[in-house]
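Quick start: what a row looks like.
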Amino acid sequence: MKERILAVDIFRGLTIALMILVNTPGTWAAVYPPLRHAEWHGYTPTDLVFPFFLFIVGTSIVFAYRNKTANSKTYRKIVIRTLKLIGLGLFLGAFTLEFPFFKDFAEIRFPGVLQRIGVVFFFAALLYLHFRKKGLIVITAAILIGYWLWMAYLPLDGAAPSLERVANNWANYIDVNLFGSHTYKPDYDPEGLLSTLPSIATSLLGIFTGLLLVSKRDDKLKVMLLMGVIMLIVGTLWGMVFPINKALWTSSFVLVTAGWANLVLGLIYYLTDMRGIRFGSIFSKVGANAITVYFLSSFIAKLFYLIRVNEDHGVHSWLFDTIYVHDGVPLEFSSLLYGLSVTGFYLFLGWWMYRKGIFIKV
């Protein structure tokens, strides 16, 4: 029988809520610094959100596949889910209101959040099915160290590589030359190809936490918090030579964000699964349809930008300017209120779907 860990469900739903919040401010021109991504090196609370989701993908893999065998049926389910995630991501990037409702091919962005989730899930699930814990540790270490050596020391066009946002950055170089115009920015993509490799390690670190949670150990919380502290320390120290950077998903970034994920998940685990405190139940319900809620929030937000109310406003800006912008109220605060309102709506939607027994598996 599968043991249900409430903290995992709450963490997943909370992460989705934060993803929606940071993606839907009233205006990008006025956002509080903690709700912005770091310009390049370094990290903000917002930079923790996506790695938190990839981390909990790994943790959830343990619960979903610990009693599965590596056979054609299991592989088929993994492949189908991967293709669904990638397909939904490509749809979001390609959709437009102009007939035939898809952008010109040259304008479509190939990488993306859902695409990365799909690829990371695919490899993390297969690795979990085929390797024991020691093997996964070796693979994770090899990914993180190998990525560091590649990015920081492997010559590019005969010259030393850079970790800045420049042409001789390996991640940027590969994305520009492989994807061409199909990237988020002309010179790089935060969900690019090479940086997807260490993001798999993020999910593998989540698998280790999942293995801990399903174990029979009595000191789960202590070990989880200890792992979090160690990852934070090692990641911070590593960041002195391999800067913490979300756009490049550096190895130091992997460790620091996984460290925070363990600490946050450990706190939730202590409050809910150990102390029995009723906390965050709405997030656990949203987590039951996490990808569906995230996809709907992204798709509707895009519609709100595309649908015009008049010559000066789309639905998004009209709602923001009409309801949230007032004299004497800081624009950043109005922008935050808009984001909180949108997030609240999707929390309610996730709760309603759960209550109605609507579970859309992606």
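That is the whole record. The chain has a mean pLDDT of 93. Residues 225 and 263 are 5 Å apart (CA to CA).
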